């Protein structure tokens, strides 16, 4: 059965590793470890203990780290009952198998609520917005997968789903990797697949998908063609060309190195073809309206001949769309080719066919050199010389099925204990999907049943690029796909292009946003709006370009700025400092102060990591009894917040692009986006920048 809930919902697939392990193709070479190998090294009892604690069957006292509130045997019986297994209370084979099966990561038994909010939307026309795209699939395929996932629920309820292209929607959909800013990090391939928040304001209702996964339609790469003469049809694999069979896109028969495929089984007979995703044809997101890469290009004085991840911490491959990024600042993200490898040491790079391995030429993926039978390829023409490689693409995860499950959570549904239900915790691919009766009963309990013909939702429809004139096969048109950024701007000049500010604080009654030597002011008055950027060096010339936090003393109107282990005090144009923060009584272990809160006249709380100290501003010393743990007094906020400030009667804790708002009763009453909720950004800004 289903239960509505408030907790974040995370779609988890436990990594299943081969007996032979993950290692280099060559024997007796350095072993490479990937996420999931830890399961091989865990005993069944260690796995059970971890599983029972993680999913709520064994509730351990906060900070105790010792006794469980229930015995292992009772916890096992509770887990077995939930999963429909025989209730033995022992760690039998079927129980171990269930613990290793793909499943959702939210605890099955929750004794607390993370967020307050409604259990369902209070309106039937629910809006959604796709903030960015995965390089694994062409944008229109992703759009279609999400649209079909929403239709699963609108087919059986009065709900309609309208896509927005700017502003804030009820359900904000995005792709991200690892620590992507909401306090619930992804963990690489084959771990957490996605998660969604239940209905409500701010971040609630939003759905995030792990871009370390291989997103497909569930049966391997779904390659949508561009240009050619097939009108955007999917590649047909395998296909024959000049007497040879191809199971991937190829550049054979072309002199421009553009990958292509046939869209029927026999190109020689039907002459139907299209071009496969390639950075030579287009990019996505970024600020270049989909323009193709320009090679070579210059970045930080270095020349690049292909897509790169340099300069980024998220692993996304990008390129400049002019020959000099340093000068023009124009870029886009590179689409993954159908042969983009997984893992190895060349994540996201395409297989290079043919390639040489131990002196032999290979025209397709091979398991040679491996003891586990896994298919791999080189990402350069000569593995022997370059040793660049990765595993060949697998079937991947069905974006449609995962999205349908997550959107169920975003509408207010919890998990089902019916194995065939979409909302069952375990993920599995289904060829001919249909919504189970239990799913229908759950969603109709919240929103009622569908009556009459399908309503026509208001608002814009999903745009599809119009067909262009058919190009000659050997001279493809390089017109790009529809842009995802309608008004590209210099990110250094537009606050709405910044996802994480260096510091946010209230000065002179206005909220100030600091980033890399610039700042913006947001008036507390409704008609004031956002102004800037302004130069920090013009107003506070002694400050470094990057500050960690600041506060204005309510009594003296002095402004304290913190950067690393130093602080500065401005009184008008008069300056004191820089001085070391240990002069305030902070211990030498504090590397920086990340937030400051006024606590009445003359008292300020200084935050760093999971602790905070109370500063007596007049005495310039830390009060006795500190530090204290942040989560004891300010429960429900992230311990690693990098911006903490007061604004309009609320306390805000920020982490990456998100904020947690706390009311006067020290309750988190809202979680949302800094740029959309506080800055009121409405443009189609780049979510990854």
UniProtKB/TrEMBL annotation:
Protein name in UniProt: Matrix metalloproteinase-9
InterPro entries named in the record: FN_type2_dom (IPR000562), FN_type2_sf (IPR036943), Hemopexin-like_dom (IPR000585), Hemopexin-like_dom_sf (IPR036375), Hemopexin-like_repeat (IPR018487), Kringle-like (IPR013806), M10A_MMP (IPR033739), MetalloPept_cat_dom_sf (IPR024079)
Paired cysteines (S-S): 235-261, 249-276, 293-319, 307-334, 351-377, 365-392
Transmembrane regions: none
Cofactor comment: Can bind about 5 Ca(2+) ions per subunit. Binds 2 Zn(2+) ions per subunit.
UniProt region (Disordered), positions on chain: 446-494
Catalyzed reactions: Cleavage of gelatin types I and V and collagen types IV and V
Secretion signal, residue range per the UniProt entry: 1-23
